[in-house]
Amino acid sequence: MIDIHFGPQICGDLTSAASREWLVPDGLGGYAMGTVGGLRTRRYHGLLVVPGETPASRQVGLVSLDPAVTLPSGARVRLGAHEWASGDVDPRGFELLERFDLIDGLPRWRWRIGAVVIERELAMLPGRSCVAVVHRLVAGGPVRLELSAACTWRDAHGERRADGPIPQVEAVADGAVVEGAYRLAGPGWAPEGQWWLGVHHREEANRGLHPDEDLWYAGRFSGELERPGDTVSVRAWAGRLDEEPPPATEIVATARRRNRRVVATAKPADDVDATLALAADAFVVRTNQAAVDVVAGYPWFGAWSRDTMISYEGLFLCTGRADEGRELLRAYAATLSEGMLANTADTGRVEYNTVDGTLWFLHAVSRHVTVTGDTDLGDELLPALRAVIDAHTAGTRYGIRVDPADGLLTQGAAGTALTWMDARVYGVPVTPRTGKPVEVNALWINGLAGLAELTELAGQDADELWRRHRQATASFRERFPAPTGWLHDVLDAPAPAYPLGGAAVHDDDALRPNQLLAWSLPYAPMEPDEATLRRIAGGLLTPLGPRSLAPDSGEFVGRHRGGPADRDGGYHQGTVWPWLLGPYVDAVRRGKMSVDDVFVGIEAHLMEYGLGSVSETADGLAPHTATGCPFQAWSVAELLRVRRKSQ
């Protein structure tokens, strides 16, 4: 894997150290997460974040273990880091960090206090909500190490304050149980019990959300580090509290071995490929129901079917996980209703509110069978997939139906945004894209051809599917090319305003990246044209992927910043989406154009934001600062997929 490490100039500079985040997942949807410098910048940061019934319903438990070292001289040096509502940063342990490493996906910090060097490693026990934090004396000593446990128990999206109930902490052997929800265990436990008031999260302030919370100082662990190699370790776990996990050092070793197996199974071609394979592993989880699912992004997303299906080939087929993928596809097929795939359970209820999620599902099944030769799965799902085509042809929810005049798919209902560009501001869609979106129809045509092939593999008649495919392809090629030199983004869209007697619909020719699917998909409706692709690249391409809207558009928003309304308003109006690099590379490659230089910026990004991973979004204007989730499934999956094809 790529070597990710930072020395004192990065670690000791708060802005640099706090803008680089690490993630250690538990395989269930929970995680430990923080920054290189140890400063918590998000409400979501913590050492034990526990998944609920769904990966999105997470609870924050153990927030931090703040080290303090008592030297032979009697001096006490604090190594933690907190920012407070007053603006103060205290303590400032990051100033004593001489190195941070991410090794096999696990973070390691090294503090130097003169001749004394202390190292911290952290890991989660795979398949269990359990974190182990190991502190080791590397040089110097003897010293005494104290670890102050800052705790809470709250929804990951909220805060807990001192004006509410005091957390219940029950003393047990070697530690305590907090709120009956999770257990802390380690040496020399001494209960304390007081509020730390006004802990500040600078990233929440940047996102226009409430940035402060109060933490409960539950107590501290302590132990002696007499000679190099001595350790003081703490474990925290949820779930089966009476079932003690293995020793902390064993948990670290187990996690490291597992991560190496994950990488080896993916058979990486180079160090970047290996890094992406391990990054992909973070998103594949087993839920409380023991079902395979995909977390769309950390730290705040749960499972979204659109993201899952776009990510499918990269996460499962490129990493040697086809058996798990098969299980996932079968489970998602069971959610089909009126020809539509359930979108997300993040809200606590099943929703059917996308036009493209189902079409990406058709694509995922087709790719699974094509890549693996698993025709048994194709045969099993064929009736459900045919029902999808029938439902779309006859018409289903939200006005989704085939227009018999041209065989293209149209969609839309008042107040809805059914494509992946689904942001809303105060309930009003920013880009409703009602009509016939270009990527939806590319997916429709791709789905018809893919299903026709599955039908023929099953020994059945596919003539009607091929007839529909030919009609839709001919209509696409006739109607989507725009006078601008690229493709329309939406056909037959409601005109925003038109004079008496004017047209009630228009064709939207805004330069957006959605058209890339018209060339990138396996059964794409268009043949690549170099001049067109160069126009698209000239307007949209950045080092981290294509923008969602060209900068010369009057609606372009170059910075994805501000409060929720500001961020949602700019989400698809110029913000960069790294996952779109996948369709871009496929389209360019089909056009016989070079992609050798396309990955330079995004490979460097692996060490800039979410370490070893790829962000959800970035600013449309230079320097294209990363935004959104630091760890995003489809961003990782699509980069992994198209890099594999380049090797």
Automatic annotation (TrEMBL):
Positions of the Glycogen debranching enzyme bacterial and archaeal type N-terminal domain: 20-227
Pfam family, one: GDE_N
Segments forming domain Glycogen debranching enzyme C-terminal: 279-641
InterPro entries per the UniProt record, alphabetical: 6-hairpin_glycosidase_sf, 6hp_glycosidase-like_sf, AGL/Gdb1, GDE_C, Glycogen_debranch_N
PANTHER family xrefs: GLYCOGEN DEBRANCHING ENZYME
Protein name: 4-alpha-glucanotransferase
Organism this protein belongs to: Micromonospora noduli
